[in-house]
Amino acid sequence: MTQVMESSSAKSRSNIYETITTKILAAIESNPGDPVLPWQRGGFNPTLPINATTQAAYRGINILSLWVSALERGYESGEWATLKQWNAIGANVRKGEHASPIVFYREFEVRSDASQPRDSSAGDSSDSDTELRRMARGYWVFAAEQVDGYTPATALPPNPIQRITAAEAYFDATGAKVIVGGTQACYRPSTDTIHMPDEARFLGKDGRTRTDAWYRVLSHETAHYTSAPQRCNRQLGKRFGDDQYAMEECIAETAACFICARLGISGEPHPDHARYIHHWIKVMKADARAIFAAAAKAQEAVAYLDSLQRSAAAQQRAA
Question: Residue 117 pLDDT > 60, yes or no?
Fold first, then answer.
């Protein structure tokens, strides 16, 4: 009897995937438009960077260097410090975080070459036998968003989304480390961490609540999390070539749709899903069956996440 039930359940899940994929295709064909991020971003608003421990402002080329890093990684605090400085105030740079380069100039005096003749008519004296030189030395700094144990002065006031117990349990069972803060949503392979924007940034839009938007984005990034070699080891091969990034995005968004449907967050694909996948239409046009390949890989990702749910449940029973 158990075997029959499992087979029926597997068939039911397969039907869900097929139904969702069909609806996504229909929405894409209707030209849903460009994707809209479900959180407030509004573009990069540069903040003059300062040292978090000394409050001294960075200058010159260092401003540009730190702005580039902030733009690339979604940092907005404008507070930076070296590893040693963060440690000195009890903050810890997270493992795997990449530092940003700055240059510090030190001025010092050196004696002029004594072999050079001096022009006495110009009033040369022993006091003019020195010249001022500058020596550059490189340092590496981390943003406040890269450390634990420190709250930036620019942190948003808390406005948490409403928690869904079943969804929280689902994502907790994956074991993924989720870091909240800043303006960027991503899975970062170098640190094996999922990054989410501040909860206060999320908006309710197009009939979707702030809570729905949060879990949809978290589902997308958790799908990327499954691509790591120690998990699904997602290899897209030569078939997609230079389009592998676009294909991975399609896989993650399709998986997000599956996860949300399974958790009851959205009964059917929301327009956001189709908009996002449509954004990567190039790979769809190059390969008519790309969406079906994405759906198959998405199903593998969700199956892996489901296996973690079973493992977590078994551990709880054993305890």
Answer: no
